[in-house]
Amino acid sequence: MLNRREMMQGMAAGAGAALTAPLLPERLIASPAGNSTPKRIIFFLQNQGFDPKTCIPEGMTGSGSLAKAKLPEPISALEPYKERLHIINGLHGTHTSPTHSAFFGALGGYRGGDGVPPSASTIDYALSKALPQTLLPHLCIGMDSIENMTTKPTTATLSASGAGQPIFMHSNPNQLYQMLYGGISTGNIRRQFDARSNVLNQIEKLATAKGRSIPTTDQLRYGQFVQGFKDVNGLRDRLDTVADHLRNFAPTVDERYTNPKFETDWHDVLLDLGISALTSGITNTLTIGSGRGEIFGAWKGLGIEQQGHNLGHMKQPDNPIWVKIRQYNSRMLVRIIEAMESVPEGSGTMMDHTLIVYTSNNADKQHTNGANWPVMLLGNLDGTFKTGCFTQLDGKRPINSLYATLLQAAGQNCDRFNMSAKLAKQFDSSTGPLREVLA
Amino acid sequence: MNTARWALVVMLASGLQSAASGETYTPGQKTSYDFGSFARPFLASHCLDCHGSEEPAGNLSLLDLGPVDEGNSGTWRRVWAQVTLKEMPPKDAEHPTVVHRLQFSDWIVSELKRVMRDKGGFRAHLDPNKGNFVDHDLLFGPLPDGIKLAPTASPARLWRVTPQEHITRLNELINSEPDFDPKKPGLRTHGDVVPTNHGGELKLYFGTDRIIKWQGGTVAYATAVKSVPAVLSSARNHGLENYPDFYTVNSAETTQIMGIAEDIIRYMAYGPLSIAKPYQITDDPKSIADKMKGDLRGLPTSIVYGTKVLRPLTPVYDLMKDEGVTDERLTAAVDYIFEAMTFRPPSKKETDAYLTIVKQSIETLGKENGAVLGLSSIFLDRDAVFRAELAGTGKPDRHGRVMLQDWELGLAVNHALRYIKPDDQLRNAIVAGRMRTKADVKREVERMLADDSVRKPRTLRFFRDYFDFDRGGYICKDSKALAQTGVNARGQSHYRAMFDATASTDRLIELILHEDKDVFKRLLTTGKVVTTEADKVYFGKRRSKKEVAASQAAAKKAAAEAAKKAAAELAAWLKANPGKKPSKAKNKKKRRANGNHNVTVAKLSGPKIFARVSRRSFGNGSMKPGRVLATVPEGQRLGILTHPSWLVSHSDAMDNHAIRRGHWIRERLLGGGIPDVPITVDAMLPDEPRTSLRERMRVTREAYCWTCHKKMDPLGLPFEMYNHAGLYRETELGQPVDTRGEIIDSGDPTLDGKVANAIELIQKLAESQLATQVFVRHAFRFWMGRNETLNDAPVLQDAYRAYTDSGGSMKAMLVSLLTSDAFLYRTSREPALSEAN
């Protein structure tokens, strides 16, 4: 595994072939110049909106340090990690039409809505291609009510690899485990893994055989089709070669996978799987859709009876229901931080080269015009971002500007993300990165 | 130019003729010219006078331009565009002969191909947006001496299935579509394409035809129902989207297809039981009230399905319903899915291969999971996602062409018109060996064209690709700018109106195709329109400031009078009924003085008609098929180019896009080619909210820009008589709107000249032979899946003649195109001919 990474980093910039999908880890893009320590980003989107009162310490109205502030109850779990936290208030997303969720527009920075296909790739996908490459760069997981996760184990509402090209979130931990760790699994999961592997190998053979009569001019295109199977089968083989390494990181499959009592059982093990993909080094971008990008979702395991749409119709501050949900999110963020800190990397730990971006796909509340879109950052991504502070912006910079900043931190030379100069005249008071959040 | 120089030029030119070839020029034939003996003299005679060393024209010096290599390929590409489009040499200069120009153009293309072969290739000349680079006069007029055409064909190729075709194939497996009802021809019918939903998404819906109850409203429904989006995608959204060589299928797509396949197979086997709990399937929702307590909105458990089985029951159903597994039932399931996905029966080898896969899976996973996994592999067969036109069997004629035969020919003919598998008659013809000749093709094509119950969505697809009227709902509008147009800018109403308008425009085109007379002209000039209630605003007139004020004043006055009257009535009533309280009904006589003051709505009435819309996707907010066939307001509209569906599709967030509209007219009606935007140009109009678009477009009138922009701007600006939501207007920013334009250098001198507005522009173009011929060229490209070459001139002329001789029948044109050599023959052995085509 480390050999592979070194090998890939060693290849000269400019070898670049275009990467078409996140499941093609061996297709290289030019490695960003300079620093090639592994880096990772986690996007955590909690649906129904992120009310700023649930994260901004009481009394803080302007930018300043968090050192003397007390974090509000919903995010109190982050108190010990305050000096790594950066709360940003005042970004806007009015152009994403975020009422009732901006869907792909939240991570895309463009107009979204129910039934509206993505009009371009989203920031998580773009980053997965820009950060130092890994075997399975971009992984998306979705947390929802148990009924929805069972009947629709994959859904695509938040991430996209291009216009009209949605990326699916995984919600069935059994299927996700099989995909990541099938090679080292046992029992039922192993059987399914073997059966599926066998079918895919056969499909590859058939596809190859049917390529023999193709005219030369079409061989490139058809070759890509065949290569797709080779990639999927090859990924499996490559994961196999690092099986011993993966065993150190793969979670144990327990009752929660096969017999969940509440949806939160699945939420927890999905998070375990996501974290393990990061710690084992096979993923560099993890997108977590808590509520799966829509206006539904359930958290009965926290003792919350209401589900779905109603959760978006109640105010969040001082509401025991929302305190519970946000605290649950915060505990998940803590688990991510602790896991990253437990793995040595470079001269420190993985956490030193990690950034968590916590926000909502629905700006500040379900019925919103998107004028305020709070975001919390955790970590500094190798010293790039300021931490331990609260920043109040003036409300004229769009979420796209934060995304452009992230891309710059990943070594890309870009002033804007998914926003033409023309649109920027309407929606952005400035250009370039968010200087206020940079170290 | 002085005499000596002239003599030198003549000498060089004639010298070149013999150097090049004393023989004839055949398009696509490989030549052995090189830079030194051919290109350099050409440059010297025709270019260097102006593009030499001293103050080169357009700041482009070609003096040091040498043989084509990666470094100068950009310059050579520009030279190619300018020379091929006859922009250069300029009109007043000496021109190369027709043949010479063709040879030069061909030489550049072949050099660019050679040089770029391992750098991504050079395919610009094959792109639909360069189809017009082939000289129109040479295609439709007499050829000069020295040109000898070769019999034409298309290259052997592998054609990826389009997203629409793919979803429609999948839909066939799990949804029954109604048979054609001649009394209600506009309703969605078996064989129509799966329509996009309320948001413009192409999605496959599971079981929505059986839903009898759900909880909550629109979004709750959309979340609760099972649907999968189209997996395959089209990268383009303007112009022809589907040449065979555009697309492949990548690993993310194949993984998704496999996942979807499993869902589909389970649904085929178990119906709604595969997506719902048993108790949810009942005809009496009240009987399960205890299970439906509380807020279940958005959950799949909030839905009640009726018990009547509606989906097609297939061998997959048979396989799974009975205990155990037999070879017979397995084979039937494999063969059924194979033919459903590839449109042809499997060979024995194919059946065996898939049987093996299914059996192996069953062995590992048991019957249910094993069969589902095994059968899903069929969805990834090469021929389930691609369609082959390889012409592998058959003897090539002396030009290296092989005619398509049997299944390949039958499926090519089927694909020309339809998205579902060949009907019984075509299938029988193929199997019986009666799909081998041109006459066979003519027979089947004419039969299918004559039969309305044989749905032909590919024809509608051509018109969508040609007109691009289906983009409106995807154009993101700035809310304030949209509100100013006078339409309802709240929420998603505008976008829904646009998707409804797309379905309506489809239906209008169908009506014109049904009458099949003067199709092209009628599309451009019809006064008919298919409308919804919202269209009364979209086809209305945006009032001027004065008119708005007047309307508001009038409404205020009317409200005051009504209030006065109501008060008087109340007083009278009270007097007649002393001591009593008036009923609520009497009190509530206040009618709110609302209504849209900004717009004079159009009066749109007429017979009821239907448009094809998707399955219920958004609860009660889903698209509805009911429409009205109306007539547009007199003098304000003329044909599809004045419909909001087309206008908005060619607009942007804030305003009209006159350049894009002008580009459309130039390309799709005048057959003109426009070189690519130079890389150094920052193509943006100034941001001046209080000035009109025409005024802001002054920047394109700079000398450097105008050479290309004069081909577009004067054709697009006449459409300023509509605002960017498509409403008719006479004023803009308080001033009368300037709608003047001009047709410049169309190639037909009788067509050139000024026009007062879009109506006049359209009238001229609709009458013109040129525009009709350009229309035929685009039809050729769509149905052949490639750009035309000079060798296709006979095919194009035949198709045009078939169209005009039959009084403008699209069907006649199609028969001609589909029985042409270009459609029937494939080449793969003769690389030269392949490259030309």
- The topology string of helices and strands of chain A comes to HEEEHHEHEEHHHHHHEHHEEEEEHH
Task: For the record, give the distance between the C-alpha atoms at the N and C termini of chain B, rounded to a whole number.
Answer: 40 Å
Helical content of chain A stands at: 25-40%
Strand content of chain B: 5-15%
The biggest sheet of chain B, with number of strands, parallel, antiparallel or mixed sense and barrel status, is:
3 strands, mixed
Plain-language structure description:
The complex is a heterodimer of chains A (439) and B (837). Chain A is an alpha/beta fold. Chain A has 14 helices and 12 strands. In chain A, strands 2-12-3-11-10-1-7-4 form an 8-stranded mixed sheet, with helices on both faces. In chain A, α3 (123-130) packs parallel to α13 and α6 packs antiparallel against α7 (216-241). By secondary structure, chain B is mainly alpha-helical. Helices cover 44% and strands 7% of the residues of chain B. In chain B, α11 runs antiparallel to α12. The relative contact order of chain B is 0.11. The interface between A and B is large, with 71 and 80 residues.
